[in-house]
Automatic annotation (TrEMBL):
Biological process according to GO: protein secretion; vesicle-mediated transport
Organism of derivation: Upupa epops (Eurasian hoopoe)
Transmembrane feature ranges: 29-48, 54-74, 121-142, 148-167
Subcellular location: Membrane
Name of the molecule in the record: Golgi apparatus membrane protein TVP23 homolog
Key word Nucleotide-binding present: no
Length: 202
């Protein structure tokens, strides 16, 4: 499989302090809006549909359309613009599935790097909404709302696929989530230890 991977900061937490002031501005407001609009709208329709209409079919079609628009927009547009990442899955002639990842070349396009605000909006929306759909899935299961379970599972699958794709795109094929989490926690522990030593010394 061909994987083109460049390290991009997940939350821009490791960027130089000198660049943060330049990167706090939202450079793609339309993309940032639609990154959250479709997924939040799908959740809102799911929560309010029984108050708005008695037609289950109308609610189901509306939610699935919003989820599909969200999947396409996040996978093809907002990820590329907001954090410089893109992923897709392709099947070769032998029938084997390959994950393909693209990342913006920071050295070549330094002036177009993502802003910290956009990065936070992207990852917050990408991570939070699938978790909400998982909660809805358990709620529908335990309350025996079988007809809603299919709709909720569509939310989990579509938004979970984007989350999985972008995390794999961010982490890369040579790393795994465990090593990334260990590295992040190690950095945080080191920073806290240094800060305590500085306080003690002063």
């Amino acid at each position: 499989s061909s994987e083109d991977i460049e390290d991009v900061s997940l939350f821009d937490a490791d960027d130089d302090v000198s660049r943060r002031s330049k990167k706090s501005k939202i450079r793609h407001p339309v993309a940032s809006f639609f990154h959250l609009f479709f997924r939040v709208s799908a959740i809102a329709v799911y929560l309010l549909c029984e108050l708005l209409t008695s037609s289950f079919i109308a609610c189901m079609v509306t939610i699935i359309l919003l989820l599909s628009c969200d999947f396409w927009a996040v996978k093809n547009v907002t990820g590329r613009l907001m954090v410089g990442l893109r992923w897709w899955n392709q099947v070769d002639d032998d029938g084997k599935s390959h994950w393909v990842f693209e990342s913006r070349k920071v050295s070549a396009q330094r002036s177009k790097t993502s802003s910290e605000a956009e990065s936070r909006i992207f990852w917050l929306g990408l991570i939070t909404c699938p978790m909400i759909w998982v909660i809805f899935a358990f709620s529908a299961l335990f309350s025996f709302k079988v007809k809603w379970l299919a709709v909720v599972m569509m939310g989990v699958v579509l938004q979970g696929a984007n989350l999985y794709g972008y995390i794999r795109c961010k982490v890369g094929s040579r790393k795994n989530l465990t090593s990334m989490a260990t590295s992040y926690l190690g950095k945080q522990f080191l920073r806290q230890t240094v800060a305590k030593e500085d306080q003690t010394a002063s």
